[in-house]
Amino acid sequence: MGGGGSTRRVTFEADENENITVVKGVRLSDSVIDRMKEPSSPRGRQHRGSGAVNDEELKKRIAEELALERARRDSEAQKRRLFGRLLERERISANEQLTRAMLRERAATEEERQKAQRFARQLEEKERELKKHDAYYKEQLARLEERVKPFF
């Protein structure tokens, strides 16, 4: 248990009455302190004159609590990383969908533009044809009028 590559220096000292072990260099959460205050099973506990906890047991308990706390922090960090990756994938997916939609829209717009140009060319061609027909019919009408003049 534990490890995690920490280089933090932890020291254990006994107070002047040797009743309490003082741990220096370690931050403990309230939950860890509360669990340490809870009485453990009397089995495995050695008593000195006034019933103090054995230093080795206390060191072991502190190490276990630190390992649990470190594991909890590592687990939370891993959850944050996974959540971050999930958010990043969602963002990438949304960007890809947006890009595809923009490309489809651009293609549709270009198709409409080309269609409009095609219709404009067809309309111009039709107008040229109508002008030719108009000129032809005017010419024919003028010929007919010239032929009919002697009769009227």
TrEMBL record:
Major localization class: mitochondrion
GO annotation, biological process: inner mitochondrial membrane organization
Region (Disordered): 28-57
Alphabetical keyword list: Coiled coil, Disulfide bond, Lipoprotein, Membrane, Mitochondrion, Mitochondrion inner membrane, Myristate
Compartments (UniProt record): Mitochondrion inner membrane
Membrane topology: Lipid-anchor
GO CC field: MICOS complex
Superkingdom to which the source organism belongs: Eukaryota
Residue runs in coiled coils: 106-143
InterPro entries xrefs: MIC19/MIC25, MICOS_subunit_Mic19
Annotated Pfam families: MIC19_MIC25
This protein's name: MIC19 protein
